[in-house]
Amino acid sequence: MSHARAAVRDILAGLLRLAPAPAPRWPLALQAAAAMTTPIAVFALLGAPEVGYRAAAGAFIVIHASALPPVERARVLPFIGAGLLAAAALGVVCAASPALSLAGLVVVALAAAAAMYGLRLGAPGPLFFVLVYGLSGQIAGALEGAESFAYLGILALGIGFSYLLALIPLLWPSVRRASARPVRQLLPRPTLAGVAGTMFLRAALVTIVGTAIGATVDPARTYWVVGAALAVVGTAVGRRTAVARALHRMLGTVVGAAVFLLIAPWGVEGLWLAVVLGGLQFVIELIVVRNYGLALVFITPLVLLLTGAATGQLGTAFVGERIVDTIVGGALGAASGLLHRPGHGALTAPRT
Q1: In the chain, how many domains are there?
Q2: Which of 56, 162, 181, 232 makes an SS bond possible with 35, Cβ 3.0 to 4.6 Å?
Q3: What does pTM read for this prediction?
């Protein structure tokens, strides 16, 4: 019992604790902020801000494979970008049918989890493939015919621009000359043995259960439930960590939703929205490795603002639903942590 009380105290104390960053985060934060801000600002000046909102989702490529040196990131990120674009394309194709949309969600979540865990690509795991899938389905539902496929071209433009930003460190000769492993070593055949297999099993479990829950309540909300669950699963190993991440997710989302409710009535759009989203993205990347719950105070309004702007439905009526979806997903993610054996090892890159 004393051990359990100590674990609870540690988890609660973690809500207020800032862990040290494993490496300087400001270069990645600047890349992510620029990737989010620039498309919106440029297209707002051209009189088509909605194009910029949709291209800005391409910024999600930048936050992947951040632990790799720049020369290796340059080789891995195109595959991440292709995966995000494939998830978006499936979201567009399946948008017309709720049944297809639910099936596509399961396919994207499981494929992304198998790839991210099987290749040991680290944070943020399979989450953003699911978010891009769901966002793309919502956007396609608000568009007609060929416009949906034009959106995929816009997203590809945003992904390509964000990738170029990730290459900026290679302008320095010392960075560019660093040795890099070939692609076949960086992206070997995925293997789901050991901890990677457990992580995939957790992701599969929360995806299937979350989809079943969403299908009975509101299929359009299902990707929020599954996304919240996958965010809790993340790349973290262990039962206590699963509970801690779930608590961070729930409380951070509630506070972040309150921040969104403060921002949304001001009707921020165009250049102002570009500044707000860029600022939020910068802060997120600085603190997400130090305190996950605090980061969610900024992640939540960013996702809600970007989703609302990209779909043309920037309102506040759905905030309560998002909080409920996050609580359900967070509980699923925490429960899935029971699949870890006590003392389960870390999710490490395979030897090559």
Answers
A1: 1
A2: 162
A3: 0.92
